[in-house]
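Objective 1.3, modelling of assemblies. Example input:
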Amino acid sequence: MEEFVKVISQLASGFSVSLILFTITLITAIPLGLLISFCSMSKVTPIRIFTKVIVWILRGTPLMLQLFIIYYGPGLVGWFNWSSLNTGWTWFDKTFDPRFIASIIAFAINYAAYFSEIFRGGIQSITKGQTEAGQVLGMTKGQIFSKIVLLQVIKRIVPPMSNEIITLVKDTSLAKTVGVLELIFRAQDFLDDGIIWPFLCAGLFYLIFVGLLTIIFNKIEKKLSYFKA
Amino acid sequence: MAFLEIKNYNKKFGELKVLKGIDLSIEKGEVVSIIGSSGSGKTTLLRCINFLETPDVGEMILDGELLFSDLESKKYTEKILRNKRLNFGLVFQSFNLFPQYNVLKNLTLAPTLLIKTKAKKLKEQLKGQGKKFLEIKKEIKEYVNSERERIEKEALILLEKVDLTEKKNSYPCELSGGQQQRVAIARALALKPKILCFDEPTSALDPELTAEVLRVIKSLKEGDRTMIIVTHEMGFAKSVSDKVVFMSEGIIAEQGSPKKLFTNPKTEALKNFLANTGDKEGN
Ligand SMILES: Nc1ncnc2c1ncn2[C@@H]1O[C@H](COP(=O)(O)OP(=O)(O)OP(=O)(O)O)[C@@H](O)[C@H]1O
Ligand SMILES: [Mg+2]
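Predicted structure (C-alpha cells):
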C-alpha cells in the first residue's frame, strides 16, 4: 500500500510536468501556427517560400532530433549550455528547469508548423465565393474574416486539430530524452527497484487525459454541427 | 445621359483579352439580359461592374457620378472600393449564403455592420461637439438600436417578398437550392443597391426549382428595379427583359429589344447561338 501511494504520487508529479509542457506548447503553438500559416499564404514570394521551407524541415525531421538540436546545439557551437543555465524563473515553489524550457521551445516550434498547415488548409478551403459575397455586401476584410470565414474555418479544423493535440499529449514523453522529469521518466525510476507496473499506470494517466480531450472535442464538433460548411 | 453608362470596358487576364471594349447603357428601371456562349466574358463584365475585378481600360458613370475611371483606378483604396460596391448588388450562381447564420441573419448581417461603422463615425462627431461621454454613449445606443429595428423590419418585408417568411430561422443547409437563391436575392436587396445583378441565378438549380426563382426576379421588375441578368434561360430573357445584350468573344455583338434580337438576329454569331440553344426556348 505504501509503495502504491509512493508510485502514484511520483507519477502524479511526473504527469503534472507533462501537463504543463502540453498546455504551454498548445497556447504558444496555436498563435505561432496562425502567424506561420499567414506567412505561407503571403503574396510576397520570398516570405512564402522561406516559410514553406521552414515548415517542410520542421515536419520532415523527427521532433526528437529538433529537441536535441535545440538542447545540445547552443553548447556545441560554444554559445551556452542549457544545463548550466539558471533561468531564475519560478513557478510556485519550483524553479523552471532549463531542460524544460528547451523542450517547450522545441515543441512549440514543431507543433506550430503542424498547426500552420492545418490552418492554411482550413482557410484555403473556404470558397472564394464566401469572401466575394462579403465583398459585394460592403464588408471590410476584417469583418469578412471574423464574421464569415473564421467560424467556418474552426468547424473544418476541429477534427485534424484534435488529432494533432492528442498526438501532442503522447509526444510530451519525448522530453524525457533531454532529462525532463515527465511521466515516463518518473515511471522508469521504479525499474531500478524491479517494479514494472508503474508503466501501466503511466499509460492509464495518458489514456484518461486523452479520453477527456476526446470528449471535449466531440462536444465542440457537435456544437458546430448545426451548419454545413 | 442614361442611368448607367459603361464606356469602353477592357479587361485582360494575363495575355487573354476577355473584354474588348464594352459599351453599355442602361436606363433607370430597365431590365437588361446578357446572353452569349460560354467564355464570352459575361461573368467578367458583371464582376467588373461590381468592382470584384478592375477593368484595365474604361469608364463607368452611374446616376451622373463617375464611378470608375481607368485614370483613377490605381488610387482606389479598399474603403473607396467598398463604397463603390454598395451601388450594386450581385446574386451568384452558387448562392454563397453564409452557412453559419440563419436566413434572417444572412439578410441583416451586412446592413448591421454598416450601421456599426456609421455609429463609430457619429461617435467621433459627437466627441468633436464636446458632448459628455455618457450622453454620447446613450445617443449612440439609441441610434444603433433604432437602426437595428429598422433593418430587421425591412428584412422581414423582403423575406415576405421572396415568400420565405416561415423560413426566417432556418439555416441555409436546411433549404432547397431555390429557397437558398431566393434568400440570396433578398440579402442583396437588403442593402438597397441601385442596380441588382444576377449571374446565371438558376444554373445551379434543378429544373423544377428554377421557376420559383425566376418568378421572384419577375416580381422585382414590377417594383421598377434596375437589373442586369446574365442568363442561359432564353425564354426568361425574352419575357423579362426590356433589352437583351448578346456577347460574343469579349464584345457586345448585338443588342436591342428581345423581339428584335430573338426574331431577327443580324449577326452570324447570334444566329448560331440561338440555333444551338433553340431546344431550350420552348420553356
Ligand atoms: N480570374 C481569371 N483568370 C484568368 N482567366 C479568367 C479569369 N476569369 C475568367 N477568365 C477567362 O475569361 C474568359 C471569360 O470568362 P467568363 O467567366 O467571363 O465567361 P462567361 O461568359 O461568364 O462564361 P459562362 O457562360 O461559362 O459562365 C474565359 O476564357 C475564362 O477562362
Ligand atoms: Mg459566367
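Chain A touches chain B at residues 127, 129-130, 132-141, 143, 147-148, 151-152, 155, 226-229 (CB under 8 Å).
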